[in-house]
Design goal:
This protein is of the alpha+beta class. The chain contains 3 helices and 6 strands, in the order βαβαβββαβ. It has a 6-stranded antiparallel β-sheet with strand order 2-3-4-5-1-6, covered by helices on one side. Strand 4 and strand 5 form a beta hairpin.
Length: 126
């Protein structure tokens, strides 16, 4: 297989939910991109558009913030769920990155406990 990239898929529980807002997540993306030397592109959020009632009434696995940080070589996604104090992170890039440094940054930032992670190599059969 000819590899063209990789994706880190990571789940954390018992996170610091104070980090689950647009301001803090922007800091997260800037810091992570600096740490792994990725060039940032547009950042997008979805979080009930500030409708606190809708967010409060949402089921636990839906209540939170989703953010996508496009990077020059793909994207980084975060799904932060307030009611579960859980965050799901995907880092996908066709440019190589240091997985250990990435995982350490994510755990340190969200203050959680890693419960699951997987590296998926992306490419084509040759």
């Amino acid at each position: 297989m000819t590899e063209y990239g990789k994706e880190l898929i990571m789940d954390l529980e018992r996170c610091n939910i104070a980090m689950f807002n647009r301001r803090k997540l922007k800091i997260f993306f800037v810091g992570l991109c600096e740490k792994i030397n990725m060039k940032r592109a547009p950042l997008h959020f979805w979080d009930y558009g500030g409708d606190r009632k809708a967010r409060a009434e949402a089921e636990p696995h839906l209540a939170g913030v989703t953010a996508i940080q496009f990077i020059e070589t793909s994207d980084i996604r975060v799904h932060a769920l307030d009611k579960l104090a859980t965050v799901y992170v995907n880092v996908f890039s066709c440019k190589d990155f240091d997985v250990a440094a990435t995982k350490e940054f994510i755990v340190d930032f969200f203050g959680g406990v890693e419960t699951n992670s997987l590296i998926v190599k992306r490419g084509i059969k040759t």
